[in-house]
Amino acid sequence: MSDFSPAKCEITKAIITSYGRENVASEDISAIIGAFDIEHGIGKVALTGSITVLDTTGFLEMFPLRGEETLDLEIKSYDLQTVRKIKAHIYRITDIEPNSLTKGVTYTLHWISNISWSALQRKIIKAYNDKEISTIIKEIFNQYFAVLKPNTTVKTDGIELPDETSIFNITGEEQRKFVLHRTSEKTSLTIPRYSPTEAIGFCLKRAFNNTQSKSSSFRFFETWDGFYFVSDEWFFQKAAANGISQSKVLNYSAQVDLDPLNIDEQVKSLESFTNPSRIDSARDLAGGGYKNTFLEIDLLNSTVKRYNYAYLEGNNKFKDVKGKEASWQSDTHTEKFANEVFTNENARQFLVMRDYRNSYDAKSFSGEKNFRELVSRRVMYNAHMSATQVQATTSGRLDLSPGDVIHVNIRELNASTNQIEKNDQLSGRYLITHISNVCNNDILSTQLTLFKYDWSDANIDKGAGT
Q: Does residue 15 share a domain with residue 148?
């Protein structure tokens, strides 16, 4: 028990296979890996990483390595006995440096997941007519990333998912899946010779859902267990329906219990917790998070109209991480200040060129029809999301993934108060938006980027502890 370390982590398997010679040239190099890092986030399309190798046998030249190889990785973290498996492709070799002490050479191998690498090799020129964006993205993924199996074979392990969610197994990597949340309304568009990832980004800009995602903040990204095309609210709804498990609770305090026998405290402890920019009224004034305006030039009708949008008015009822509508009560600014300072005069302005007509009989409409609503809502949502962005660090925790909603307990920061008391503003549910796993000499550090929505949800989740 006394030897337990939540930071202990190792690569248990790292098999490199030459391109086109699967039955001839394969080698497990796990014994010569000194460090590795893995990057994934809801704003990052592909799962990527690197491994640093100490080569004393001439493996680089004798194998040889050409940036064509596949890499079959298996990583184990000893805090919660988490095992992660990755099928990757080595595409880059850098930082080659002779080591005089070992008479060898060190270098870094950069990798990307096999599925994302396959997609990078393709280009798309294709028109889609009268289809929902979610349908188009599914078709792109199925044709250019990996073949999807019918969703009737997928197990959700008792997890309740938001309405209109489809899950598909991925052929060739059956342990991984593609999760798709349906968008609303149909559109027509043409992909102008983009790579598959660029094509999906092109579609993401037009993804709209006026019911389950007021912000229409759709993301396409890859993580340990597969690919996701969902909105931020999808994660909020999933967490609200299923609650927060004890394994997804993290604690931060100025005084950390270092007793090696207190394993639970060590696994759940954050080593750092930083809110880089808590309040910036000048940024709020210029950013359009409270007021923005659109000058729309209608080319067909030869008219010009101005549309003003205000935060928390009309359809701008964004959800926070507990599934509740955002309110002035948890906002950074008071309602009185916001209404008097953020006006239509100083609002962030956008110019729109409209080239379509309203027609209820049409089967499809221009992809830019919801442009004003999309841009306005995303600008407002992102402004309030970034206001609570937090950087945190912990040891181990290979089990955490982007998109997880976790509960963070923050002790009071005031030195004159009892450290047992929680900070009600900082504590609560957070969405993980980015993870960087960095391991050196078998010691894993996990760097997290998190956010709430404004300073909402200071309440304790059922079963989340104090």
A: no
Q: Of the candidates 257, 275, 274, 277, which has an alpha carbon nearest to the alpha carbon of residue 266?
A: 257
In this predicted structure, what is the pLDDT of residue 4?
Answer: 66
Task: Tell whether 340 is covered by a domain.
Answer: yes
d(C-alpha 372, C-alpha 295), whole Å: 10
Could you tell me which of 190, 194, 200 has the C-alpha nearest to residue 126?
190
Please indicate, yes or no, whether residues 134 and 79 belong to a single structural domain of this protein: no
Residue 95 maps to which CATH number? 2.40.10.10
Q: What is the pTM of this model?
A: 0.90
For residue 457, tell me if it sits in a domain. Answer: no
CA atoms of 267 and 5, how far apart (whole Å): 9
Q: Are 1 and 262 in contact (CB under 8 A)?
A: no
Nearest to 448 by CA among 466, 434, 464, 428: 434
* Among candidate residues 317, 347, 378, the one where a domain is terminated: 378
Shared domain check, 322 and 261? no
Owning domain of residue 257: 244-277+387-451
Residue 22 CB partners (closer than 8 Å, separation 6+): none
The model's pLDDT over 180-197, given as tens digits with 9 standing for 90+, comes to 999 988 889 999 999 999
Going by C-alpha positions, the residue among 113, 95, 90, 109 that lies closest to residue 44 is: 113
Q: Where on the phi/psi map is residue 288: left (φ > 0), alpha (ψ -120 to 50), or beta?
A: left
pLDDT at position 37: 97
pLDDT digit string, tens, across residues 387-433: 889 999 999 999 999 999 999 998 876 655 555 577 878 888 999 99
From 378, 409, 442, give the residue that closes a domain.
378
Domain membership flag for residue 356:
yes
